[in-house]
Fold this sequence. Notes:
Blueprint: E1 4-11, E2 15-24, E3 27-37, E4 41-43, E5 46-48, H1 51-67, E6 72-78, E7 84-87, H2 108-115, H3 119-126, H4 135-144, H5 148-152, E8 155-158, H6 159-168, E9 173-174, H7 175-178, E10 184-185, E11 190-191, H8 193-197, E12 209-210, E13 214-218, H9 221-227, E14 233-236, H10 241-247, E15 256-261, E16 264-271, H11 278-283, E17 286-289, E18 295-302, H12 305-316, H13 323-332, H14 353-363, H15 372-397, E19 404-408, H16 415-425, E20 429-431, H17 436-448, H18 455-465, E21 469-471, H19 477-491
Parallel strand pairs: 1-6, 6-14, 9-12, 15-19, 19-20
Antiparallel strand pairs: 1-2, 2-3, 4-5, 7-8, 10-11, 13-14, 15-16, 16-18, 17-18, 20-21
Helix pairs in contact: 1-9, 10-17, 13-15, 15-16, 15-19
Amino acid sequence: MSPKHFIAFDLGATSGRTILGTLRDGELALKELTRFPNAPLRLNGHWYWNIYSLYERLCEGLRAAAREQVTISSVGIDTWGVDFAFVGRDGSLLGLPHAYRDPHTDGIPEAYFSEVLSREKVYAATGIQIMPFNSLYQLYALRRGDSSPLAAAHRLLFMPDALSYLLTGEMVTEYTIASTSQLLNPHTKRIEGRLLEGMGLSPELFPPVVMPGHRIGTLHPALAAECGLPELPVIAVAGHDTASAVAAVPASDEHFAYLSSGTWSLMGIELPDPVIDERTFACNFTNEGGVEGTTRLLKNISGMWLLEQCLSRWKAEGRDYTYPEVVRMASEAEPFRAMIDPDDPSFVAPDDMPAAIRAYCERTGQRPPADDPAMIRAIFESLALKYRQVLDRLRQLAPFRIDRLHVIGGGSKNALLNRFTADSIGIPVVAGPSEATAVGNIMLQARAAGCVATLREMRSLIARCIPTEEFAPHHDAAWDEAYARFLRVTANPE
C-alpha cells in the first residue's frame, strides 16, 4: 500500500505546531514542519486571541507541507477548549475571540446561577465541571456587557471550527470541542437550548454538531493555489486537543486512567456514557465528549502553567533555566517542604506566580520556598499529590479496576514528575506518547481515510509504533505522610 500523508495543526494555549504524519506499511512517522508561539493579547484590560495571526501560521504550515513534495490526504485542526469566535451574516469574523483567562468572567457563574438557572440544573443538563471560563459563562459575561460582536453574531464557532472555517468557508460545531463549553447536552449530543434561552440567545447561533471524522470541506481554491497545494479535504478531528490526545492513549484494555499533561493536567477515565450524579457534582467532575461517542470523565487540574509562569518571571529577573536544569534543581531540593493546591484561584492569572505561591504558603501556615529549586520541587510534588487525590475519586466512580495511569502530552517527558506520580498514586505510570495530541489528530484523519476502522485499531497501531516508558511505584511512607498533610493544607487555604 502506498504511504498516506496527513497534516495535523495542533494549537495549544502557549504554542502551536504543524505536524506531517505518514502511515506506511502499518508504521506511523511524525515530522514537525513548523512551530510557533501563541499567547493572548492584553488590550484595555482584556485578554484576546489573535486569530488572524493563527491563520497566518496555518498558511505557513501549509506552505511547509507543500515543500515536502508528498501527496497529502487531508488536514485536521485541534486546539484548547471553551474559547470561540463570532461570525457575522456577511461571513466576516466579528472582533477578536476572548481568551479563557480574561477576567471578564470573574463572578459570572454565580450571577448566571442566580439570574438564569441554578448550579444544580446547569450541571444536570451538561455534566461539565463548573469553571469560570466555560463558554457558557463567557457568553453570559458578553451578554451582560452588551457585547457588540455578540449582538451582531450570526454564528458562534469554537476555535478549531473557526480556523477550519477560515480555511474552507464551511461552518460546523465539532462534538468534542463543543462538549467543553458547558452548553452541550451529553445525552442528546446537541446544544442545550434552555441554557441559552434564559439569557435571550438561541441555539441557532451554533452550526450543526458533527462527530470526529466528518469532512468539513476543502481548502479555498485561492488559498490552496497560494500555498502550492491541491484543494485538500479538511477533516473535523477530535477538535479538543485533549480528546485527540486521549484517542492516542496506547491502552490494550479499559483498566486505565489517563493524564494529559501540559499547561493543563487533565486526569480521567474513558466511559461509554456520562456519569452525572451527586458524587460527580460534589467533586466537580466533567463529562466531555470523546471519539466514538465515548465520555471522558475527568478533572481539569492546573498543570505546567504554574511552572511556566514561574520560569517566565525568573527569566524577566535574569534567571533563564533550561528544562534539564529545572529537573536537576527540583531533584536536588529538599522534599516535602511546602505544598500548594494547584487549582487555588490565586494561581489562575497572577502577575507574579512565585509571589502568589509564597503568599499561599503563608496563608496556610507554611514556610514559603526559600529559593527557585525549592519552588520547583513544591510545584512537582503538589501536582503528584493532587493527582493522587483526583485518582482516588476516580476509583470510586469507575466501573472497573484502574491498574495503571497513562501520562500523555509534553509533560510525559518529565521523568522526575512521572516518578513522583507513580510513588504518590501507588500504581505504574506509563509515559508517552509525548506528541499524543498530534498523533490522535493524525490517526483520526487516517480513520476518515479508511486506513484504520476503530479506536481500538488506532490504539493498537500507536502502541506498536511509539515507545513508552514505565515508572513502577516504590512504596514510601513519606508520600503517605505528605498526602495526609496535603489534604489538611488544601482543605484550609485561608
